[in-house]
Amino acid sequence: MQFLTAVSPQSFSTPSWKVETKYSTRVFTGNWVEERRKFTKATEKTPQCIYRKEYVPFPDHRPDQISRWYGKRRIEGLPYKHLMTHHQEPPHRHLISTYDDHYNRHSYNPGLPPRRSWSGHKLLWLPEKSDF
């Protein structure tokens, strides 16, 4: 019966107390400071991203202005004239200042419940909806 081993046959002739390695793997031997400072490039080419490698240029291509205009128009939303005019009424009739609302009371309606405000002491909106 023969055993196949990956160990060299010389190791069988040495006594077992000499089989250990001479140094630990963490011990630096030789001129390790200068070897540590050496920098070896992995490749001779500069690394490039995948997009740059796979990019196919189209020199005659021109951007599509019409789809750009539609996208810009969609982002802008409704124009001012659609928001502030109604059947050719002047726009100043729809605008009211905070001063007018609080002191001149143009839009005051006694049938509406009183305005609620946040009470930081009670951590509630007062008056509560159940109060009116």
Automatic annotation (TrEMBL):
InterPro entries: CFAP107, CFAP68/107. One of its GO terms (cellular component) is axonemal microtubule. One of its GO terms (biological process) is flagellated sperm motility. Keywords: Cell projection, Cilium, Cytoplasm, Cytoskeleton, Flagellum. It holds the Pfam family CFAP107. It is found in: Cytoplasm, Cytoskeleton, Flagellum axoneme. Microtubule inner protein component of sperm flagellar doublet microtubules. Microtubule inner protein (MIP) part of the dynein-decorated doublet microtubules (DMTs) in cilia axoneme, which is required for motile cilia beating. This is Uncharacterized protein C1orf158. The gene is CA158.
